[in-house]
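Action item from last meeting closed. Structure (152 res):
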């Protein structure tokens, strides 16, 4: 059923992803100059040659789309279990990649820039925890259904 606690967990994880897309990951300050790293781009084109942050944005959009689609797979709980476990791992990897790209941009900018990491850098890890909690709730439902089937 769609009105279960795992729906709440997956919805909040998706909303956190949308929030992460709308806010910067890090801001690098040097005097009055500021370089902003967002999930799709950065403002350092004129300062340094850096490949970019587009993989963060693309992965966030992919994760959001699949997490929302997972909510509507309530009739196929084994598939939901597989998707939530794989996306828990993917969200942890996304968080590590966000931090790595932020560190790489800081290294590419060089000396004098102070990195201020935004609170959104932790959102992939929070979403991973919520996705894992959704997996536990789905497993609990699946175990309940299987135990009722044994009684028949």
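Sequence:
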């Amino acid at each position: 059923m769609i009105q279960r606690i795992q729906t709440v967990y997956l919805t909040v994880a998706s909303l956190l992803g949308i929030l992460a897309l709308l806010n910067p990951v890090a801001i690098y300050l040097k005097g009055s100059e500021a370089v902003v790293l967002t999930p799709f781009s950065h403002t350092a084109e004129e300062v340094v040659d850096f490949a970019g942050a587009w993989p963060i944005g693309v992965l966030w959009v992919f994760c959001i789309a699949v997490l929302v689609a997972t909510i509507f797979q309530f009739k196929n709980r084994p598939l939901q279990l597989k998707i939530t476990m794989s996306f828990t791992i993917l969200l942890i990897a996304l968080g590590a990649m966000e931090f790595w790209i932020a560190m790489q941009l800081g290294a590419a900018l060089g000396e004098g820039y102070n990195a201020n990491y935004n609170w959104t850098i932790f959102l992939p890890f929070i979403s991973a925890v919520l996705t894992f909690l959704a997996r536990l709730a789905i497993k609990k439902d699946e175990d309940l259904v299987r135990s009722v089937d044994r009684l028949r």
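Note appended to the action item: The chain has a mean pLDDT of 86.
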